[in-house]
Amino acid sequence: MLSFKSYIKPKNIKEAYDLLQNNNAEIIGGATFLRLSNRKVDLAIDLIDAGLDYIKDTEENVEIGSMVTISEFEENPILSNLFNGYLKNVAETILSFQMRNIITIGGTLYPKYGFSDLITALLVLNTDIYLYHSGKISLEEYLKTKVHKDILEKIVIKKEKLKATFHYIRNSEYDFSILNVAVSKGKKVKIAVGARPGVATLAYKAMEYLNKNGLNENNIKEAAKIAAEEIVFADDIKTSKEYRKVVCEALVRRALLEVM
Amino acid sequence: MKEVTRKIPKKDALGLLLGKPVYTDDIAPENSLIVKILRSPHAFARIKNIDTSEAEKIEGIECIITHLDLPRNPITRAGQGYPEPSPHDWYILDEYVRYVGDEVAIIAGKNEQCVEEALQKIKVEYEIFEPVLDFEKAEDHPSIIHPEKESHPMFEIGFDAEKNIAASYEMEIGNIEEELKNCDVVVHQRYYTQAQAHVAFEPHTAASYLDMHGRLVIISSTQVPFHVRRIIAEAFGLPIKDIRVIKPRIGGGFGGKQAIHGEPFVAAVTLKTGKPAKIVYTRQEVFEATYTRHPMRYDITLGATKDGKLKVIDMQGLSDTGAYGEHALTTFMVAGSKTLPLYNKVSAVRFTGKVVYTNKVPAGAFRGYGAIQGNFALESTIDMLAEKLGMDPVEFRKKNMIAEGETSPIFKIMGEGREGVEMFVRSCKLNECVEEGMKLINWKEKYPRVKISETKIRGVGMAIAMQGSGIANIDMGAAILKLNDDGSFNLLIGATDLGTGSDTILAQIAAEVLNVPTENIIVYSSDTDLTPFDVGAYASSTTYVSGNAVKRAAEKMKKLIIKEGARKLGIEESKVDFDGNYIYEINGDKKLPLKELATVLYYTENQKQLITDASYVGEESPPPFMAGFAEVEVDIETGKVKLINYVAVVDCGTTINPNLAKIQVEGGLVQGIGMTLFEDVKYSPNGKLLTNNLMHYKIPSRLDIGNIIVKFAESYEPTGPFGAKSVAEIGIDTPPAAIANAIYNAVGIRITSLPITPEKILMSLK
Amino acid sequence: MKIKVIINGEKKVLDIEPHEILLDVLRRYGYYSVRRGCDTGMCGICTVLFDGKPVPSCSVFAARADGHEITTLEGLPEAKEFAELLAEEGADQCGYCSPGLIVNTVYLKKLKIKKMDEAKIKLIGNLCRCTGYEGQHRAIAKFLGVEK
Q1: How far apart are CA A33 and CA B56, in angstroms?
Q2: Which residue, of B239, B269, B289, is where some domain finishes?
């Protein structure tokens, strides 16, 4: 059971940040997973009223405040139409509608959940993370960086001409992905693999191979093999690393064929 | 028939749907002490010492009870008739803990928070033993799970605690080895089924208080209120008369609430403190510390002659009952008794095996109750045999399966934990079920496979199944009907509605006899002080057993109304009839409204209460039958199976309420589909259940099941109430084998262990 | 601590613990349609509307609701129409999961969903162990006015 001594809902991110520095405190974003932990925390800092639920559409970017819920990708016209509905399609199969109404962008990205579909999907876009204290960092870098007692303020997705697609394998449709794959093709090809079960990563060697040799059916087959070799998989309660490796190759191939 | 076969909503529907407070936790006394259980973190250990002193100091804690504070009467929680065919091997609390989650201490306090805190502060010293976690190594394991002298069976069930054997059974008709020599084709295969969880959505909940007379009243989400009363009396050494058990509405059971779970713990607190108490299990506790389906292993050998005649069935099994032996023998026997009669023309049949203890979550009753495990093994192997014979598996079944008017020696030899009864199958439309199912799935076009794309192949497969309708000569249900002064009736029944709609269909049966609208029958059920006895809701018994009791009580009531009406009209009884509204002269004009008769009898003349009762014990247990057809699509690059269609054609006799019968089958099918494809069970190396929440234990969602098509064959069971047989369990049995057969027909891979995951398929394809 | 919440249109002041979840608080204050199912946000049984949107109340801290609006089944007048359709199909069975399904489906009606498949995607988090879903789907199709 997670217990708090007090619960505060700051009106802005500065107030939240200051409280976080000086206390045994926990930030409440969506809190769907945090809630399942067994800890004693002095202070819960809920960002719900901190004005972070904005979606801003500019010429070059879309800015999404960290308290925007995943369901906005289905319901908000700016987000649901991005990249021809790519992110809408990803969001719509994440857990349940009710859960998507409380799971936030910040709550998903900040802890770098391995099972996240959204992180994988965003990794093949040009996505930047803005942390209140540490400032701007690309999602790719963020996933490799340790961050302590900071608050995710917003993410910024660059609008580009991209073809992107997302594939996953689950046994029950209502489950976390056993493995997920996102692929985008703009000027270059990007391939991300997540739920390995570790957090998503780009398949650098496979990307390099394709960007050097071009996108055709034979190269796609080869790139899929390279991706399955280079990515590190592990066992977990849902499946084995051997299965993940085999299915990774199939999903990467399928995704690449789709954007070819 | 007017009331029977009416598709009316359940009597309690709107109350349930609109969220009225009707479940145990909603109606438990408001000032109930909160009860929680300290559970063992070890799979097998002995409690050397418990120090509760720190915990007791916490404000709000009312009592902490350990095994030292309680009577040590061996009981079984199984919730069966008496004497039970399950060993008495459980104690309210014991010095041994036998699985991760086993009860160590009972804590009661004023609120959740103080009880949670007290749980952390109890210090327990354990002597830890090597646990038995692999059921194939349980027999003769150096660790003996039940070393205590007091545990014992109630009669011979093959119990041998020193060898970790809870029960064993063997049966042979004909000579297997000799007959196999005469077979042209023999196949052999081994199968495994998993410890499926019930996942009834209302967590197990019980509350208790002392009434003004000092009697113990228990409100519980139970399927068996009368058994709860008897077992609690036994466990605490109390007279049955000092206990009352009330079952309010309950949120699903599926066998998981046939047993005693929270009741003894709240009872212990109420008896000690004199205060009301309640326990609501967490979902994790429901997974880790109630019941699962018995995992089983079967080795099957089938033999046939080349003309397609099945000659030999040999089933050798091993079943895992977990830490306690609830339903150990009976689930195991049912794996044979509810599958073997399907093929009643064989020359030799054998069924043998053992049920072993392990240090895992105890297994208990679960819809399908052995039959689904046996069906998966037998019906998968039938397909293998048909293939080897070069026959269409449907044709092979049609040639060998049981038909109306036939019998099987199994009925007499194998009952539930004892001998069964001889029985001819009076109603069996299995052939019609198969024919209709073939049409609905379009077997001729689709068998064995259709290639959809380079990576996707569809296949069809099927299986047949049977169940029973109550346990013959054992299960008893009783009913009381009384006439009210407005001409309506109270129907009092011990039968237990788990959400199935049994209150409603039993009212429909009474209404049909009395020729009154079902709306005029007011039902009250499942209260040991106020309703007559009923064994409860299990073994597919309510429609058939309790239904027959209600029918008899209603017939008596009709006679009584005619008798009293005739007296009032001043005519001979034989010249009078009752049509639901009037008691009338058959060849004349005299008539008397029922309402008028009722008012007169209450208040003005010849005053009396019209009341009738009846009991019923089945002399037979007529099996419902069904044919299940699955169409699957297999992705050969990922191993993922998508269920496209599932067709079920069912012979359950008359459907008393066709809507409710249909939902019973649909619900059963989806639970069976869950067991087949999704519901994986994983333990840690030290015996902790890891699939202990709904993030890891996946029951089917509404997007996982494809199209479910359910039809009923025209059928009439002469011994059933208005021709009805049972329908509760039959739906669950076929999906494992039918889907496994469909996958085989699609891609040539035979998966023999459940669940059938994408990983198993893909790794076999590679 | 005390929180001010509008529940089913009524202003309420509730006394809560900082770590309490909304489900427990609603039940304590007598909203019994909100039922405990899985404790992990997966079953959908405890669904309520939070500022008009369906959420699993077991996964929301009650303190978050301070200054916000909660609607339970008791506060949804459209619930009865859908409940009657479910009852006609016999799709209530044990009824335990029904309130959550009803709250979510009544919300979907406002979204003017046109296809059953879309509805199923949005209802995937409403699990049911009794009915096998088919009966629910027959009733949902009628309520939303879509083809099954």
Answers
A1: 32
A2: B289
Residues B581 and B607 occupy one common structural domain? yes
pLDDT the model gives residue A22: 84
Q: Is A32 on the interface with C (CB under 8 A)?
A: yes
Structure tokens at B210: 């002392």
Q: Domain residue spans in chain A?
A: 3-46, 55-158, 166-259
B14-43 confidence digits (pLDDT tens): 999 999 999 999 999 999 999 999 999 999
C-alpha–C-alpha distance, residues C84 and C93, integer Å: 13
**How close is the nearest chain A Cα to the Cα of B472, in Å?**
40
3-class secondary-structure state, position B469: coil
Which B residues, 691 through 710, put their C-beta within 8 Å of a C-beta on chain A? 691, 695-696, 698, 700-701, 703-704
Q: For residue C54, give the chain A residue with the closest CA.
A: A98
Nearest CA in chain C to A93: C121
Tens of pLDDT along B585-597?
999 999 999 999 9
When pLDDT is cut at 50, 70 and 90, the band that residue A23 belongs to is: confident
Q: Is B38 on the interface with C (CB under 8 A)?
A: no
| B101 and B240 share one domain | yes
Stretch(es) of chain C classified as CATH 3.10.20.30: 2-72
Distance between CA atoms of residues B431 and B625, nearest Å: 10
Whether the predicted interface score ipTM is above 0.85: yes
CB A113 within 8 A of CB A236: no
What homologous superfamily is domain C2-72 in, according to CATH? Beta-grasp domain (3.10.20.30)
Tokens of B712: 């009923």
A-chain residues near B638 (CB < 8 A):
169, 247, 250-251
B425 and B505 share a domain? no
The answer to whether B757 contacts A171, with C-beta atoms less than 8 Å apart, is: yes
Helix, coil or strand: residue A55: strand
Q: In this structure, how many other beta carbons lie within 10 angstroms of the beta carbon of residue A2?
A: 17
Which CATH code of 3.40.50.720, 3.30.465.10, 3.40.190.170, 2.30.42.10 fits the domain covering A55-158? 3.30.465.10
Q: Each residue's pLDDT tens digit in chain C (148 positions)?
A: 999 999 999 999 999 999 999 999 999 999 999 999 999 999 999 999 999 999 999 999 999 999 999 999 999 999 999 999 999 999 999 999 999 999 999 999 999 898 999 999 999 999 999 999 999 999 999 999 998 7
Compute the nearest-CA separation of A98 from chain C (Å).
4
pLDDT for A1: 79
8 Å CB contact of B638 and A173? no
The CATH-assigned architecture of domain C79-144 is: Orthogonal Bundle (1.10)
Contact C129 B200 (CB under 8 A): yes
Nearest-angstrom CA–CA distance, B122 and B105: 9
Residues of chain C with Cβ-Cβ distance to B113 below 8 Å are 17
| Beta-carbon separation of B704 and A172 below 8 A | yes
* Contact state of B659 with C128 under an 8 Å Cβ cutoff: no
Residue of B nearest to C132 (CA): B667
Q: Closest chain B residue to A96 measured between Cα atoms? A: B701
Q: CA dist A189 to A225, B71, B259, B375, C146, Å?
A: 16, 72, 59, 51, 41
In words, the CATH class of domain A166-259 is alpha beta
Alpha helices in B237-282, H assignment, sequence order? 263-273
Nearest to B201 among C74, C120, C129 (CB): C129
